Amino acid sequence: MSLFYKNKRVLVTGADGFMGSHLTERLLSEGAKVSVYVRGNSTIGTTQYALKNTKHLEKRIEKIITGNIASADTKELIIKNRPEVIFHLAADAYVPNSFEHPIEVMETNVIGTLNILHAAKEYKNIKRVVCTSSSEIYGMTIGGSIDEEHPLYPSSPYAASKVAADRYCYSYWNTYRVPVAVIRPFNTYGPRHTYDVIPKFIEIALKNKTLTVHGTGSQSRDFSYVDDMIDAFMIMGSHENAVGKAVNFGTGEAITVNYIAKKVKEISGSNSKITHIEDRAAQVPKLLCNYSLAKKLFKWKPKVFIDEGLRRNIEWVKQNLKH
């Protein structure tokens, strides 16, 4: 796989985000010529940017493109960059934000994805476009583990925007033969993640403050460690079997929020209390990944499970953040 990316021109959108920064690191380590697309800072001019997660990589990045992914300018900026592989991770991914700003979230997630697809359609040297979907597209699930044939029941405006983007990707493959691969990551956590339950609980536990659980805490998710998910991205960008497919990646283990709270407290040696408050709006009771298609197509399987992943994550936070 490392030979595939060596000297390839790769563009990563959303490169300064949590998963985008890990992916950019991996691509650079495998010899890719990486450009990144990051949101411009409107307070100091849209050509200006402030890198957070990829600041340490800045000198190794070929080109830093700034802009709003939902802007019509995006298509020409991408074509001008001449990428061979695009990893599209730019998104408004914080679910509660979509409750108050559904149109803004739609523009970023749907129009932004369409801009990427349209650029790939017009620029003929594109070898692969990997678009990032979400396990949230499945919504209110109808049984046990979720495979790719499961109906899509988006339960929030965010989830609906990801369904639309996911299916637009398939349509551009089906209609125009744009070489699209859709990755559907289940809940991913690890160093540099700042929102969602695991990073929030770790930060609070290390301060010995109260851990607040929404609802009963019996709601469960398939939590995947970031290293495993970056392996999945690299496969989706290089493997011939990925084109025209949407593929789930997860651990196949449903972990409750109550378990996360107790385990974070235990591993971090925290004195935090655990309390329960009212349930969150649009709460999905369970998301459990069936990754059998990924195993069949690519022989992929997860390597890091929840206790080890939490241990690594907590250790990183202790070393990198001051409390």
Structure description:
- It contains 11 helices and 13 strands.
- By secondary structure, the protein is α/β, with parallel strands linked by helices.
- It has a domain at 2-186 and 225-250: 3-Layer(aba) Sandwich (Rossmann fold).
- It has a 7-stranded parallel β-sheet with strand order 3-2-1-4-5-6-11, with helices on both faces.
- Strand 1, helix 2 (18-29) and strand 2 form a beta-alpha-beta unit.
- The chain is globular.
- The termini are far apart.
- The mean pLDDT is 93.
SSE layout and pairing:
Elements: H1 2-5, E1 9-13, H2 18-29, E2 33-38, E3 63-66, H3 73-81, E4 85-88, H4 97-100, H5 102-122, E5 128-132, H6 157-176, E6 180-185, E7 188-189, H7 197-206, E8 211-214, E9 220-221, E10 224-225, H8 226-238, E11 246-249, E12 255-256, H9 257-268, E13 274-277, H10 292-298, H11 306-320
Parallel strand pairs: 1-2, 1-4, 2-3, 4-5, 5-6, 6-11, 7-10, 8-13
Antiparallel strand pairs: 9-12
